[in-house]
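Re: weekly structure request thread

Next one in the queue (495 aa):
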Amino acid sequence: MDKKTTLACLACVLLSGAVFAEPDNGKFLPSAEMLVPNHVFLEAGGGLNFPVNFFNQGRVAMTSYGGNFVAGVGYNFSGWLNSITVTRDMWDQGKGEYALMENFKNNIIEFRLRKIISKKSIKWFPKHLEVIPGLGIGVNFITTDYYPSIRAKEDGRLNSVQLGDKSANCLFYRAGFEFALNGITDLFIPFIGADYNAFYDTSIGGGFAGFARIYAGVRTYPFGIVNDVKRIKQERYEKMIASWPEPAAKIKTALEDSFTPDDDGLNDIAVFDLSTEYLEYDPESWLVSICDKKGKEIKRIEGKGKIPSQVEWDGKAESGELVFSRDEYTVNFTVTLSEGDRERTGLAVLSSSVVIKTGILFEVIIPDKQWKIIVNTIYFDPDRATFEKISEEQKRENKETLESITRQILEHGEVEVLVEGYANNVSNTERENIQELIPLSRLRAQTIVNILSENGLDPDILSSDGKGGSNPIAKWEDRENWWKNRRVEFIVTRK
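Done, posted below.
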């Protein structure tokens, strides 16, 4: 990266107000990652020390207020700050009667472990705020001038502890809490904090001592420009993704009204084009579900991961049953999004559908000799063989269906046509079949023969029969599919 590009990137950082400049994975446990130079940090600061209290002296302050300065070097491991810190604490002469210390100093080498908590961890946090609790342990090298008693202070008898003196070194413990202002650049992260510290001193026979600090400082990542450039690229990418339109799933087919899977070599296979828009990752899973006009699923094609560009359907249900002529089937395409796209879009599922309408299927009974057409979309008046009370839409569909059947039969040359009417035997009794269903289905078959004749078929090649409730497609127990039994079949036989 040349100097001009580096300066331009840095300017973008300072102007962008970007969030999470300081490395942080947003989780409690660190992530597995390679050690990289741009996660190394330096920090320095200073502040106010409150008076030291020796616990065996109660709440009596043994020093006055003091000050401190600190410097450290560390590594940010997925939001965990690990550092080696050097601290200098200093107190002047105590003013109170029991303040027996003068020039009391802590010289501390300490390991600190702190955890960044930010908006990545807690969504309602202000976007530039980091809260950083932490603990520390180290060695305290004490130096001080002190009076061994109040009487000694009155008499001016001052003793001293120097570096290296016996018992002048002790363990040091720290608990702290910081607030950092983050989100601009890794080169400059200001913070403020407070801590409480304890140590066990035997050099003057004082035992456990403790004191509090408040402080401010700056943390910097010397190679932070690498983080900043990475973040700029990531934020630009995220903005680009966020600017995408609403994700969508799409399904299309070229056979919306001419699907005829009757093995004649024409439109026997329905091909569905599948696609998604504005997704970043392959989906978790996908499903193509084909339903009949009652909404019941008859076929499903599904998979996981990458969506195929096309799927095919041969017109058969899972049971092997073939589609009916002049009927409608709804093909639903459902996509379950990946975790990444769910988080980005707030959506879990995308769906789309297309309605496919079958043409006239000539199912082969005897090759080049006999065929069958099954239609369940010829509508009659209830318990009648007439078309007077049905809707105008149903009348129109009847007209289009029978005209289409007429054209298809004429294209087959010299043939004979038997029209068979079927009904559903609701009571499952022979009485209903003989007394009601056969006479009704016979009349309806004859009505259709009359219309085929009017449409141009020679009456001499036409015949009809009423089958009533015989040869049901759906069993009597399968109440949900009784509608399939109410149908008309055309048996076309070449002369």
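The helical segments are 3-16, 150-155, 224-243, 339-345, 392-411, 430-454. The mean pLDDT is 87.
Next request, please.
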